[in-house]
Amino acid sequence: MTITIGELADGFYLADDGSGIPEDKRDNVFEAGYTTTEQGTGFGLSIVKQVVEAHDWEISITESAEGGARFEVTNVEVSRVESEQPQSE
């Protein structure tokens, strides 16, 4: 599986080329304990959503260009800081 991270106008996205998340399940995956596998705990995306909401951001799921899942985190304020170049002597 390949993960792609990219910039959005007001946030960022993470996309993969996996099997994706069906549209009718996209709201469920953020519920604590929701899993589709016996090995899963169902807590990973629930924790992600809690972190996102703690920052007053938003998260949504769409389909990636490769047919996998794409998680978009928006409403993110980004401050760009110019790095200072060391002064030569």
Automatic annotation (TrEMBL):
EC number(s) from the headed UniProt entry: 2.7.13.3
Assigned keywords, A-Z: Kinase, Transferase, Two-component regulatory system
Protein name: histidine kinase
InterPro entries named among the record's database cross-references: HATPase_C_sf, HATPase_dom, His_kinase_dom, Sensor_HK_Regulatory, Sig_transdc_His_kin-like_C
Pfam families xref list: HATPase_c
Any one GO biological process: phosphorelay signal transduction system
Residues covered by the Histidine kinase domain: 1-74
Broad class of enzyme this protein falls into: transferase
Catalytic activity reported: ATP + protein L-histidine = ADP + protein N-phospho-L-histidine
Source species: Haloquadratum walsbyi J07HQW1
Record-level Gene Ontology MF annotations: protein histidine kinase activity
